[in-house]
Design a protein that fits this description.
There is one protein chain. The longest helix has 20 residues, at 2-21. This protein has a single domain (2-211), classed as Porin (Beta Barrel), CATH 2.40.160. With 212 residues, it is mainly beta. It has 1 helix and 9 strands. Strand 1 and strand 2 form a beta hairpin. It starts with a helix and ends with a strand. It has one helix spanning 2-21; strands at 28-41, 49-63, 68-83, 98-116, 119-136, 145-147, 158-169, 174-183, 200-211. Keywords: Signal. Residues 19-189 form the Outer membrane protein beta-barrel domain. This is Outer membrane protein beta-barrel domain-containing protein.
Length: 212
């Protein structure tokens, strides 16, 4: 963790230095939103169904050169996974999927490179702060929600991942983007029944945004 934080600090410092050397355009700010398809993966965690949710937030683009930008973001991200329980004999006595909801405020710090006008790729570290945890036995209906408080939770309040994606920005400021977030730290706390279990957040995101 210390190495990751140090690397991120060096990464940001380098971007600031590069930006100071360049004749850059003005900083732009924007909003974004889209769909999430999330799950938990790892050698010690079996295959799970993905949870479908959404993301929404704000971002900025700080030009470094004609082709490079620094793009910090802050957004809400609905994550977690579905447990398929559609058998009539299942122990939960429901025909719905059971949804484990892990909701985060995500803060990616991305290096953005333009390949051609409008088309860019982006990569960088992402830091997640858990804000809500819930088990939903009826995800398609009202009710069936069991909120998990911090005292009863086995999931860490903080997670890290690497974001990799692509975006296309139109002259109007509208942009479309797709991104995959690879978890790099295990989500379960130490001193719990899941201690040492290899389980990481993975999220596929697609969406729209607008730069002002």
């Amino acid at each position: 963790m210390k190495k990751l934080i140090l690397s991120t600090a060096v990464f940001i410092s380098g971007l600031v230095f590069l930006n100071a050397q360049s004749d850059s355009k003005e900083v732009q700010f924007g909003v974004k939103g889209g769909l999430n398809s999330s799950t938990i993966s790892g050698d010690d965690f079996g295959d799970l169904e993905s949870r479908t949710s959404f993301n929404v937030g704000v971002l900025a683009e700080v030009p470094i050169s004609e082709r490079l930008s620094f793009q910090p973001e802050v957004f809400y991200s609905g994550q977690g996974f579905d447990v398929a329980e559609n058998d009539q004999d299942n122990i939960f006595d429901t025909n719905d999927n059971i949804e484990y909801q892990l909701d985060y405020i995500q803060v990616p710090l991305l290096l953005k490179a333009y390949l051609v006008k409008g088309l860019s790729v982006e990569v960088g570290p992402q830091f997640g702060f858990k804000i809500h945890e819930e088990l939903d036995f009826q995800p398609t209906n009202d009710g069936g929600d069991i909120e998990i408080n911090s005292e009863d939770s086995y999931v860490k309040d903080f997670s890290t991942s690497v974001a990799l994606g692509a975006s296309y920005k139109f002259d109007s400021g509208l942009f479309v983007n797709g991104r995959y977030n690879f978890g790099v730290t295990d989500i379960f706390d130490d001193n719990t029944p899941f201690q040492g279990i290899d389980a990481k957040n993975n999220v596929l995101q697609v969406g729209l945004g607008f730069m002002f």
